[in-house]
């Protein structure tokens, strides 16, 4: 039996097993059958027998067809509810921002400028790679597009200048650059609400589960104080823990300068893209002051980008990645909302309250943050992790935490999604790209992941002690 066949069978087997198990006390048969489909979707997202978007879309279709949510009209209204969700369209619009960076060449220029002015030493190169990611991160919710699609094509050329390849002296420079790149993109993914698509998915789940909508500024007020020190520390810490044997790199700035010459002078479209990005960021940060919704800002900027020919309408409608994420996340948002609609989350909250109510508030919060982080070892997708665990953890938190504790806890829980991507070679989108470059062995990756994962988890725990 082929591995593809096994992957196809697994979600179906999970569905059938749970479907025919009697519903636990306190849950209706409809709610339990919904849970069976939800578990099957999560398994499908993990093993991916078909594209992840199709897994979610199939799950939503099956629930609607079986009428587990309600009558025919209620079912289709629920099934399509994710497509009217403003957060989903914010993610879609942010993919267009990423396309603008790529098409104008601004993303590549940013990386080359950083290397030109900061790359005289190996440590400086590490910071150049890190700051390139930082500059792009508020506007690119796909860390795969940011790190693997924009940073990697530039950074992967640097070790070759020094004859550092996976087969020949990988520790000379290639291994250091690779680990700095993946480690810093994990930090920036937690730093900003719009730096990782699952962050936005998590925020929508928080809104549905707790009734609180987390703004860009509220996220930044907690995550920036925690992530900025981590970001500044990471390239240096990699230099200490996993040092390159090449300490100086005078050739790198010269190479970057030559590449910038090939790009030519900065174009009007690059300047316009940079200006629109700054305007979007300002409106996201001060959305309450301006009274403009974040998604309204995003889709308005995208309209201007198309009208100004920064990108074309054909670019928009042919962007498979953006439409794939739109369908994927809209389906998952509907599935997560269904958990609450059929009463599963209330049942989980009530059931766990009995066992956890004896814990002190501080111990409960720290334990949940730790468990949420460590469970990512079992997930190859941050989106699957978010979909499977965020509603459950929020259901418990709503029952056992005060409103004052709930909001910062929710932000820290969602904020940990980015940094937990460091722990394994498959934990986040860009990991397979940097691991696949071949500079770091699998054993070394797991060891470094444990070290940096512990450091990043410690930052989240410290945040809980400070803000909650």
UniProtKB/TrEMBL annotation:
Keywords, sorted A to Z: Membrane, Transmembrane, Transmembrane helix
Location relative to the cell: Membrane
Pfam name, any one: Na_sulph_symp
Membrane topology value: Multi-pass membrane protein
Leader sequence segment: none
Coiled coil: none
InterPro entries: CitT-rel (IPR030676), SLC13A/DASS (IPR001898)
Transmembrane segments annotated in the record for this chain: 5-23, 29-47, 52-70, 76-101, 176-197, 218-242, 271-287, 294-313, 325-342, 354-378, 409-427, 447-467
Gene Ontology CC terms: membrane
One Gene Ontology term of the molecular function aspect: transmembrane transporter activity
Matches recorded under NCBIfam families: dass (TIGR00785)
PANTHER family recorded: DICARBOXYLATE TRANSPORTER 2.1, CHLOROPLASTIC
Family label: Belongs to the SLC13A/DASS transporter (TC 2.A.47) family. DIT1 subfamily.
Protein name: Sodium:sulfate symporter family protein
